[in-house]
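R.M. (postdoc): so does anyone remember the format we settled on? I'll just put the structure tokens first.
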């Protein structure tokens, strides 16, 4: 216990988690925690070796904050990758009424977490199963939680980006490389990061919106989308102008441009496959707009 206290003071949390992970690979992880009674004979110990990382429990206050950031409700299906003792899936079910699934590689931890779920009275909504997070089917999730090293997040990133737009991803401590989080928060002395899986708005669009009692039809081209940041142009007759303040947040998208009247038109809408519908404002007026994609969408681009 004293050694853990000394290391945790000397190094930021993410650094001593990396150090412990390295020790686990070498088979030199020390026992730094006392066993506690209850929940059967097996008790997990902080920094015990696992398949990809050592096990370190997330602070209770951060667990709650992570689920709040994801906006978890009883309508959600939460999947926790590397479930450990099951505290996140149990909290999702007990505090937020969600259905939750924890995927954990260590069978002893799985059995321990299952006992905890039964003791909490949520075993019908909080399941913990033995499995490999890199082989699991995550398509049913509306929320995914993780406490993994950055290199493991990056390994999972292509799979996560293919999930349904609007799926919420929340990590404890570690990021997703150059994929900027949509929000970050601190609680319990630790940091959580939130990402919304972005819809793909790339390609050529026929954009229609009203102006001065008439319908304006223009060509909008999103030449590339890097994560949640699209880049493109609008063709206004003889003029062409770039999109400004363009951003995708899950299924929601916004952008703006200056039209040939010198009015800044601001668009905010919802993406539904090859169609966007929403509201355009500008010149003191507000109206509905629509956009139809012409052809295929290029892939969302990523950087390391």
């Amino acid at each position: 216990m004293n050694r853990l206290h000394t290391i945790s003071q000397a190094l930021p949390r993410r650094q001593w988690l990396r150090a412990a992970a390295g020790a686990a690979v070498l088979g030199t992880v020390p026992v730094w925690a006392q066993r506690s009674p209850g929940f059967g004979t097996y008790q997990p110990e902080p920094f015990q070796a696992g398949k990809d990382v050592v096990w370190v429990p997330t602070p209770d206050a951060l667990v709650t904050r992570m689920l709040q950031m994801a906006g978890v409700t009883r309508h959600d299906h939460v999947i926790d990758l590397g479930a450990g003792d099951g505290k996140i899936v149990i909290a999702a079910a007990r505090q937020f009424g969600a259905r939750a699934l924890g995927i954990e590689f260590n069978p002893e931890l799985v059995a321990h977490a299952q006992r905890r779920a039964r003791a909490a009275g949520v075993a019908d909504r909080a399941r913990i199963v033995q499995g490999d997070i890199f082989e699991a089917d995550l398509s049913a999730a509306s929320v995914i939680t993780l406490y993994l090293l950055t290199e493991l997040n990056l390994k999972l990133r292509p799979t996560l980006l293919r999930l349904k737009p609007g799926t919420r991803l929340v990590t404890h401590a570690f990021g997703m490389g150059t994929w900027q989080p949509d929000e970050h928060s601190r609680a319990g002395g630790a940091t959580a990061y939130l990402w919304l899986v972005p819809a793909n708005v790339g390609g050529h669009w026929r954009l229609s919106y009203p102006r001065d009692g008439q319908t304006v039809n223009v060509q909008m081209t999103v030449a590339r989308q890097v994560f949640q940041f699209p880049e493109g142009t609008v063709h206004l007759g003889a003029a062409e102008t770039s999109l400004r303040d363009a951003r995708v947040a899950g299924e929601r998208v916004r952008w703006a441009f200056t039209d040939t009247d010198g009015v800044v038109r601001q668009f905010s809408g919802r993406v539904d496959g090859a169609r966007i519908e929403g509201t355009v404002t500008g010149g003191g007026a507000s109206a509905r707009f629509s956009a139809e994609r012409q052809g295929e969408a290029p892939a969302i681009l990523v950087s390391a």
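R.M.: ...and that's the designed sequence above, right after the tokens. Also worth knowing: The CA atoms of residues 33 and 45 lie 6 Å apart. The helical segments are 2-10, 13-26, 60-69, 87-96, 107-119, 150-161.
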